[in-house]
Structure formats: structure tokens, C-alpha cells
């Protein structure tokens, strides 16, 4: 948890966020495509994100993705590749773009005082 808090603090600073939504994927059934514990840290803003007018509206949106979970789990397994939600809507990122972002984020860790990070 210490690492998540530390990275979360940097993400909030880097993206001008007021808070985070944190999700964990652990296991194939949770949408994990590579076997390792996997956390998503989503920067959130009081003003300017999709749910800023009604912050609690994020919960029904998250639950909508789980609405059919019980019936889906009762279906017999089908051999198919793992499909991650919104893959077709997510533009591909070049390795160079991801490297550039990682280098930029690294500067937030390098210039942070240890005492001001959780």
C-alpha cells in the first residue's frame, strides 16, 4: 500500500488531480492478461472530469459493467481470447510515447522530498 500511496501522490501532482480512484486486478477473471498483481490509479478532479458534477455517479457507471456478472459467471466457459473492455476505443500508444511519459513522471519522483510523499 505504501507504494500505491507514493505513486498516487505523484500522479495527483503530475495530472493536477484532487483524488484517485484505485482498482486492483488480480487474476484472469478480473481482466488481468499477464499474471501479476495489477493496480490502476485513475486521477480524479473535483472539476473537469466526467463525474465532477455528480461525483457519486461514478459508482453506478462502475456497477453497470458488473450488472450481468452473476449470469455471465453461470454460463459454460467458451474458448476465446481475453477481451478487455474498451480495447477498440483505446488508441494504440507507441513505445516511444509511453517512454516519454515514464521519463516525465520520473521527474516528479526525483524532485520530491521523501518527507512529503506517503
UniProtKB/TrEMBL annotation:
Motif (Histidine triad motif): 36-40
Region called Disordered, residue ranges: 74-98
Biased composition (Basic and acidic residues): 89-98
Name assigned to this protein: HIT domain-containing protein
Pfam family, one: HIT
Domain of life: Eukaryota
HIT domain residues: 1-52
Listed PROSITE patterns: HIT_1, HIT_2, PROKAR_LIPOPROTEIN
Example GO molecular function: catalytic activity
Amino acid at each position: 500500500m505504501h507504494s500505491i500511496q507514493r505513486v498516487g501522490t505523484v500522479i495527483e501532482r503530475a495530472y493536477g488531480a484532487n483524488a484517485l480512484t484505485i482498482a486492483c486486478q488480480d487474476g484472469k477473471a478480473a481482466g488481468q492478461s499477464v499474471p501479476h498483481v495489477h493496480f490502476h490509479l485513475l486521477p480524479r478532479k473535483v472539476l473537469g472530469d466526467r463525474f465532477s458534477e455528480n461525483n457519486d455517479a461514478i459508482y453506478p457507471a462502475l456497477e453497470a459493467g458488473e450488472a450481468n456478472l452473476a449470469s455471465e459467471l453461470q454460463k459454460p466457459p467458451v474458448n476465446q481470447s481475453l477481451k478487455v473492455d474498451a480495447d477498440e476505443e483505446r488508441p494504440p500508444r507507441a513505445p516511444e510515447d509511453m517512454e516519454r511519459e515514464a521519463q516525465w513522471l520520473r521527474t516528479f519522483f526525483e524532485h520530491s522530498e521523501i518527507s512529503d510523499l506517503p
